[in-house]
Design a protein that fits this description.
Chain lengths: 108, 127
């Protein structure tokens, strides 16, 4: 199956740590990338190749992988981290990819 | 400045055709794929497929195969998304994004990521 699953919503206290997960069969062979989408804005890549942060992404964002689960962790969540987060993965041999359904992160 | 410029919002009627554009500015699409992503208002992101600009080779998600067409012009660093007959259900915001690849050094797999995104083109289809 090429589907990805994510928790629909997660909340975190300001300054606390939160982990958003993404599960799917494709993750056994593929490295997920993660995208942040704030309301009214275009998505922005925040993690790729498991644990690579693009330039300009704060160090509080980190990534990991275990089996068919990819994780995005925010250590010391800030108000500006409140957004929808989507994972993306697929099969490079068939060139078929999907996004996860997204996780709405609320910073309390 | 590195950015992707997408064409402006469109309002169309069912059955009409449409072609929207995605132009790289300060970045090249050469040797990269350009992905297209749909977002219906209030819903999540949907990967539609991607086109390798140098060869205009396209890969489509089964959900969109046959209903849209990707094209690209290497000389103008531009990709296009086209419909020949729009439906009301095509109403959405469409994003393009440059898709970079990491080749695995330990397996035959490649790892794709969308590293630069356009701001989206809103398409409204209504009679």
């Amino acid at each position: 199956s090429s589907e990805l699953t994510q928790d629909p919503a997660v909340s975190v206290a300001l300054g606390a740590t939160v982990t958003i997960t993404c599960q799917g069969d494709s993750l056994n062979n593929d490295y997920a990338s993660w995208y942040q989408q704030r309301p009214g804005q275009a998505p922005k890549m925040v993690m790729f190749d498991v644990d690579m942060r693009p330039s300009g992404i704060p160090r509080r964002f980190s990534g990991s992988r275990s089996g068919n689960v990819a994780s995005l962790t925010i250590t010391g969540a800030q108000a500006e981290d409140e957004a929808d987060y989507y994972c993306h993965s697929g099969d490079s041999k068939s060139y078929q990819y999907v996004f996860g359904p997204g996780t709405k992160l609320t910073v309390l | 400045e590195v950015r992707i410029e997408q064409s402006g919002a469109e309002a169309k009627k069912p059955g009409e055709s449409l072609k929207i554009s995605c132009k790289g500015s300060g970045i090249t699409f050469s040797t990269y794929w350009v992905a297209w992503v749909r977002q219906v208002p209030g819903k999540g992101l949907e990967w539609m497929g991607m086109i390798f600009v140098d060869y205009s080779e396209s890969k489509y998600s089964p959900s969109f195969q046959g209903h849209v067409t990707f094209s690209a012009d290497k000389s103008t660093n531009t990709a296009h998304l086209q419909w020949t007959s729009l439906k009301a259900s095509d109403s959405a915001t469409y994003y393009c994004a440059r898709s970079a690849v990491t080749e695995s050094s330990t397996s035959s797999y490649s790892y794709y990521r969308m590293d630069v995104w356009g701001n989206g083109t809103a398409v409204t289809v209504s009679s």
